[in-house]
Amino acid sequence: LEEAVRTADRLAALGTLAAGLAHEIKNPLGGIKGAAQLLEKELPEDSELLDYTRIMIKETQRVNRIVEELLALTTPKKLQLSKVNLHQILGDILTLQKNGLGNREIAFQQKFDPSIPPILADEEQLTQLFLNLIKNAVEAVGENGQIRISSRILSDYTLTQKGERRQRMVAVEISDDGPGMSREQLDQLFTPFFTTKSRGTGLGLAICHKIVTEHRGLIKVASELGKGTAFTIMLPLIQ
Ligand code: ADP
Ligand code: MG
To answer: Judging by beta carbons within 10 Å of its beta carbon (0-12, 13-18, 19+), is residue 199 exposed, middle or buried?
Structure first.
């Protein structure tokens, strides 16, 4: 618990810093992006300089994303609870992801338990949670692979080791047959800024962890090098 309190304190302090930083960064960043877009319009269609304006615009978007993610991670936000249909959220994310695949051959399999009722949760945050996990799976499998998404009810899940607290939970599992992770990678998985991608932010899973914890749920990961990775999200089945 002490560790959790320390982490919360640290995040709150970071939150103040991040909010200030976000404000200071976003305005000049908007200026840079606007200027690059103007330049783009002024340049002839076949200008080689268009490569540079495109990079400028893309990179401002990247800085923007880092700032947004840092804010999502560090600013405390009250959960906006409503009855949320998990399968609808997952289905919408999958439709979007499938449309963005281009030439990649990624097969999605979904196996939902239709008896899962809507649960009381923050829809926007759950969307962010599953989007981050599904994007990671897509990025992990690369050019071709399989991603499975399933849901089930755990009718009597034991929350504590001694088994005195039991709870009805829904579990959503997102698994891929990508490269998997080493022990060292697994140990750092939820640490902010840990990334093995050249253009990653390393904030996605830290945000996932925060969202799941705020919903009093659990996030588990099983991974084996060369085989793949499975994330399981467990959320209390409160209607
Ligand atoms: P980012 O995606 O920006 O790198 P994340 O916090 O989402 O940041 O993920 C952190 C790291 O965890 C990734 O860089 C990757 O090394 C590892 N990782 C996450 N999901 C998977 C996965 N499905 N398969 C393999 N590695 C993963
Ligand atoms: Mg990610």
So the answer is: exposed
